[in-house]
Write a sequence for this structure.
């Protein structure tokens, strides 16, 4: 079990997991989200490679269209 802090809220998930798997669990499409992992913005191309670890902190900024 991995404990994460996502946008300031504690979350647990089965591990090991990638950032892309986390986004899938949260029902977020990687193309519409900017991911900051432990104060480092991740390139979208790396989301399927980067594994989350116990204690990681993520900030997810979701883009919403409209005007």
């Amino acid at each position: 079990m991995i404990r994460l802090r996502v946008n300031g809220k504690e979350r647990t998930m089965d591990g090991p997991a990638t950032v892309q798997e986390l986004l899938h669990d949260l029902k977020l499409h990687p193309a519409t989200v900017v991911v900051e992992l432990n104060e480092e913005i991740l390139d979208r191309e790396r989301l399927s490679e980067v594994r989350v670890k116990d204690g990681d902190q993520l900030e997810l900024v979701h883009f919403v269209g409209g005007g």
Observations:
- The beta strands are 2-6, 9-13, 17-18, 33-37, 40-41, 51-52, 57-62.
